[in-house]
TrEMBL record:
Belongs to the binding-protein-dependent transport system permease family. Pfam families: BPD_transp_1. The lineage of its organism: Bacteria, Pseudomonadati, Pseudomonadota, Alphaproteobacteria, Hyphomicrobiales. It comes from Phreatobacter aquaticus. One of its GO terms (cellular component) is plasma membrane. Residues 106-286 form the ABC transmembrane type-1 domain. Keywords: Cell inner membrane, Cell membrane, Ion transport, Membrane, Transmembrane, Transmembrane helix, Transport. It comes from the Bacteria. It is a multi-pass membrane protein. This is Nitrate ABC transporter permease. Its main location: membrane. GO terms for biological process: alkanesulfonate transmembrane transport; monoatomic ion transport. GO terms for molecular function: nitrate transmembrane transporter activity. It is found in: Cell inner membrane; Cell membrane.
Length: 300
């Protein structure tokens, strides 16, 4: 082949290779840059934070306008801040056995909730597994549970005071008996909904009762269990506040009742904010734990 012909072939190959290389280069996916990732994270945080802040500002503005008149029965936000800002700025002060900050009162209430809710979680999961696994247990116990779960939390307080003759275990019992029902019922439903294929595999592998409970029942029913735990922890937090109003002590519930008797409405409003924030945090913690254990299949 002559030199001009070779040159023509080379030029033709280069002309074909260039577009092909360009196509290949364009088709190779490239990940987002660090700047783009940070920008996306910032947008995500802003979209989650800004809307609640805007709504909170609107609520405070409406509240201020409605309660600033001379005939208003509730204090406006400006008065709440002026009279009770020490409860926000210094929640852990100690001026005496009963004159302590809201932080210490919340911790006292959380300690009771931790004990009562922990007991209800253990007992509720175990009994719920029994009810869900055994038809006879479900027939015998389910009607009793359906009756007991409708009893209001504070209705149990006189019985617990008569049984324990002390305020602290009585409050823990009220938390336990209030929080156990959603845990128990959700666990039993989750156990009954275990696919039959899982049970067949367990039979083929000849798993004993403990192995079946640990390897089959708990993982399969985990989304139901954590849904019950989230409901239970919310009810436990509600129950402790109500119980402490009647049993006394240094908890957040008794603080609200004492502030009412002293006509300190700003203190009550600050305590309600504490209660709401702590309840939200408890729910988020259980939800996060559920997402880890169930790998995102638990309800958010």
């Amino acid at each position: 082949m002559t030199r001009p012909a070779l040159k023509a072939v080379e030029d033709t190959g280069s002309a074909i290779a260039a577009p092909v290389a360009e196509v290949i280069r364009l088709e190779v996916p490239t990940g987002p840059t660090r700047r783009e990732r940070l920008r996306g994270q910032a947008i995500g945080v802003a979209s989650a934070v800004i809307p609640p802040l805007i709504m909170l500002a609107l609520i405070l503005l409406v509240w201020e306008l409605l309660c600033s008149g001379a005939n208003a029965t509730l204090p406006p936000p400006s008065r709440v801040w002026a009279e009770a800002n020490d409860l926000i700025l210094d929640p852990f002060f100690v001026n005496g056995s009963q004159d302590i900050g809201l932080g210490w009162r919340v911790l006292t209430s959380l300690q009771r909730v931790a004990i009562g809710f922990g007991l209800s979680a253990v007992v509720g999961i175990m009994v719920g597994a029994l009810v869900g696994q055994s038809t006879w247990a479900m027939r015998g116990l389910d009607p009793i549970f359906q009756v007991l779960r409708t009893v209001p939390p504070l209705a149990w307080l006189p019985i617990s005071l008569a049984a324990f003759r002390d305020a602290n275990p009585s409050a823990i019992f009220v938390i336990f008996i209030t929080a156990i029902w959603p845990i128990l019922i959700n666990t039993s439903v989750g156990i009954r909904n275990i696919p039959q294929d899982y049970r067949n595999v367990a039979a083929v592998l000849r798993l004993n009762h403990f192995e079946f409970f640990w390897k089959i029942m708990l993982p399969s029913a985990a989304p139901y269990i954590f849904t019950g735990l989230r409901i239970g922890v919310g009810l436990a937090w509600l129950a402790i506040v109500a119980a402490e109003m009647l049993t006394g002590g240094v908890g957040i519930g008794f603080f609200i009742w004492d502030a009412w008797n002293s006509s300190k409405l700003p203190d009550i409003i600050i305590a309600l904010v504490y209660i709401g924030l702590i309840g939200f945090v408890l729910d988020r913690l259980i939800a996060a734990l559920g997402n880890v254990v169930t790998r995102g299949t638990a309800a958010n």
